[in-house]
Amino acid sequence: MFCVKCGEKLIEGSQFCSKCGSSTNAGTPGAQSNSGQSGGTHQSPIQPQAKSESKGIMPKVKTAAFVLVVIIVAVFAFELFSGGGSSSGSASLVGTWSNDANPSHRYTFQENGNGTRGMGGALNESFTWRIEGNTVIIATWLMEERWDFRIRGNSVTFTNGPLPGTFRYSRVS
What we know:
This protein is of the alpha+beta class. Helix content is 17%, strand content 27%. The chain folds into 2 domains: 51 residues, no CATH class; 82 residues, Lipocalin. It starts with 57 loop residues before the first helix and ends with a strand.
């Protein structure tokens, strides 16, 4: 026997379809049988009806939620990979920056491309600097350093330079 509603093959003697739960009308005359036993009628199983297209608000809510998630992921990726919201122009780096872990260690970047760094007093070292994308190139009398940087508000983070680690500085002036 097959379910008249969904076409699922029924267990012999069951009163309800195990797939859709509808009544099987077991024991009623004219019930469909595919057993091939004598005395039973042999009829083709009823084909399941094609699922109707989902209607209502749920598919629209799911689509809207998916679009929202995609937008959030895109904004996050933009922030992460492009430095979105941060400023990397040379004018934004101009000023004096103090190391968060060691406040006496400072960098001063001047608009004319000159600068100083050090612990103050006789330990200061002069350098020239320029910006290429999100990288600042600091050239001293001894070598040239390349640091990736990211400015957020009154703090700057230097990474991927000649020293391992991440260095945070806060704007002093």
